[in-house]
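Notes to self after the Tuesday call (sharing in case useful).
The group wants a holo model before anyone commits to mutagenesis around the pocket. I volunteered. Ligand is heme C. Logging inputs and output together so the record is complete.
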Amino acid sequence: MIRTGRAPASRSGRRRAGHPSKPALFLMLGLLASASMPLAAQAQGTGPNPLCAACHNPDGNSTIPENPKLAGLDAEYIAKQLADFRKHKRVSETMGPMAGQITEADIDVLAAYYSEQKPTPGVVTDPKLAAQGQVIYDEGIVGSAVPACSGCHNEDGSGTAKYPRLAGQHTAYMVQQMKNFKNGVRNNDIREVMSAVAKRMTEQEMKAVAEYIAGLKGGNP
Ligand code: HEC
Ligand code: HEC
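Result:
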């Protein structure tokens, strides 16, 4: 499965050696524009990278629940994820080939751009489920030794460079990532701190805590 991710990446790599591929050309134009345009103008326009905007929206506030919001994530966290996707340390059939099309230098530009965008609020559809999730988030699950999420991701979900911002993130994306940590599909967390948490949780607990996190403001008014 890892190989399916590699093939398109190397194909596009060869293409770039001759003529720039269309996405690469857009990327270059986008980066040229970003050098001369203030950030606010970029956010209203096409953003620095139309390739990423197709799935994450120009300002990084993806509206597709399976695609994470990137707006407001710490630049260091974004850069680590993109580097991990490139090295196939974090395996994704979707993001692997995308990260293969950008350079190391692009990573810093993209990480800085998305970290400075304002995240949109998340959507809570089930307040009762969110109330169950709040207990898990703030206190953990005593019976199964799950630590409080707030201990690492902050009480308001604002996160840090190492413990990503979660506030307002799509519930579908978060539940999928927790499942991935639990079954080992995602194992790029240093010292397996997040995997250890997810392995002790049921799917129902994951859904409840994600519902609560979607309503967190993470420092936004
Ligand atoms: C075809 C849709 C698609 C495109 C295009 C795309 N992404 Fe993604 N991106 C995804 C999906 C889906 C995930 C979740 C991957 C997983 O399951 O691990 C993701 C995950 C990410 C993450 C991890 C976020 C987190 O919270 O851990 C980052 C960072 C990211 N993408 C940046 C980018 C950048 C930068 C580009 C442009 C070079 C890009 N993406 C292009 C679909 C896309
Ligand atoms: C001991 C610290 C720690 C605790 C406690 C913790 N996490 Fe995490 N979590 C992490 C780290 C570290 C990562 C990111 C790993 C990486 O990719 O670098 C992460 C990543 C995540 C992600 C993926 C975010 C993304 O954008 O892809 C989700 C969702 C998440 N945690 C939810 C939770 C929930 C819910 C709890 C409580 C039940 C929790 N975490 C408790 C350390 C922690």
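Two things stood out.
The chain has two domains: 2-115, 127-214.
The pocket of heme C (ligand 2) is lined by residues 68, 80, 136, 146-147, 149, 151-153, 162-164, 166, 174, 177-178, 188-189, 193-194, 197, 209 (CB under 6 Å).
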